[in-house]
Predict the structure.
Amino acid sequence: MFSQLIKFSQMTNGYLLTMMFVTILSFAIANLLESFAKEVSRKPHHYDWWAILWKVMLLLNIFNNYWHTRFINILGSLGYVGIFVTLFGPLITFFTARLISNRDFNPLRITFFSLILIKHLWEFTGNYILFDEVTSWIIDVIQVLLTLILVFSCKKNEKVFKVLSLIYALVMLLSTTRIAIKDFPNEILNY
């Protein structure tokens, strides 16, 4: 299918992969925004603030993934392996967004954090094995470790869940800020 599109148009594998990558992430954003709308419109206004915090962090994580689109041209030349590696992360993100959009988040915490862990391992693998980007390994390792601890402790101890959620939120903000600051001057200069 890809070879036929490329043969009769000026599209490259990287361009098609980028479009699929962005489309899947956009569906994940739509799921999260829909769940926010349901939360806000519900009466009485009794919110699960921890679920809302994790939805916001997942949105930040999705926006962080948009920075990975610059590497997709490299993966587009790898054929089906590149397609699988490229789309694995957005698909996991989409399933995670669908899971947290569920009204009752608490029974699904272990599955949610397991998917977040798989997503972080995908990012870690992509950044360090495929692209040799070692500038932010400390933040990535901290995110993987926090998520691993959350997988095993989120149902057992509520205080541990809340403290680790707040620490994870701070690390996510640091990661998002670091990515934005690192790439922002380049985007302005190339505009």
User: Anything to note?
Assistant: The chain has a mean pLDDT of 78. Residues 136 and 175 are 8 Å apart (CA to CA).
